[in-house]
Amino acid sequence: RRVAEALADAGRVETLSYPFVGPAELDALGLPPGDERRRTVRLVNPLAETQPELRTSLLLTLGQTARRNVSRGHTDLGVYEIGLVTRADGAAAAAPTGGVYPGDDVVEKIKAAVPTQPRHVAGVLTGRRERAGWWGPGRMADHTDAIELARYVARVVGVDVELRAVEQMPWHPGRCAEVLVDGEVVGHAGELHPAVVQALDLPA
What are the Cα distances from residue 129, in Å, to 12, 123, 138? Predict the structure, then answer.
C-alpha cells in the first residue's frame, strides 16, 4: 500500500490488468527459448484461447496496457502495477473427489501443487518526463528515470539496494541494471530493447 501511494504521489498512474498471457506476449518481450519466464502455468479453462497461461512477469501485461494507452494518443505515459505473478513450481497432484475430507496427506499434496505467487511491482514510462514550455525544451524519459523509480520504491520500503549493470532481455544492452538486496537480485530497471519497443508499438 505504501509503494502504491508513493508511486501515485510521484505522478504515476496505477493500473490493473488480467494476469492472462499467451505466446504473443512472451514473444513481444523477446524472451529467449529456455528462459525461466517462459515456464508458465496453463489454465484448464482459459477466458481466451490466445491467453491460456498465467503471467510470470508484470511486464507481460503492463506492456499491453502501455500499448493500448499509446494507441489512443497518450504518449507521455507513466503507469505502474502491483500484482501477483505465477511461477511454474508446483508439484503434480490429483484433485480429490468431493463430499468427504480426503485426508491430511492428500491436503498436503494439494498445498504442494499450488505454484508460488509472489507480489511484484513494475512500471512503464514513455514520452516526455518534463513537458516543453517557456521554462525549456522538456525532457524525454530514459533508463535513468526507471532506475531512479526502482531506488525510490526501495527507499519507501526501507531497504538498501545495490545496482549492477547487466545484459538481459527485454532490456537494451548497456541501459539496464539489476537491483540487488543483500546480494540477491530482486528486480531490473532500464530501457526496453528497441525490438521490444517496436513489438509493443511504443514510442522510440
Answer: 11, 14, 8
With beta carbons less than 8 A apart as the criterion, state whether 18 and 46 touch.
no
Residue 26 to residue 51: CA distance in whole angstroms? 11
- Structure confidence at residue 108 (pLDDT): 87
Between CA 11 and CA 141 the distance in angstroms is 14
111 forms bridges with which residues in the sheet?
A: none
Percent of the chain with pLDDT over 70: 98
Q: Do 125 and 189 touch, CB atoms closer than 8 A?
A: no
Cell numbers at 129, concatenated:
518526463
Distance of CA 92 to the CA centre of its chain: 27
Q: What φ, ψ does residue 43 adopt, rounded to 5°?
A: -80, 145
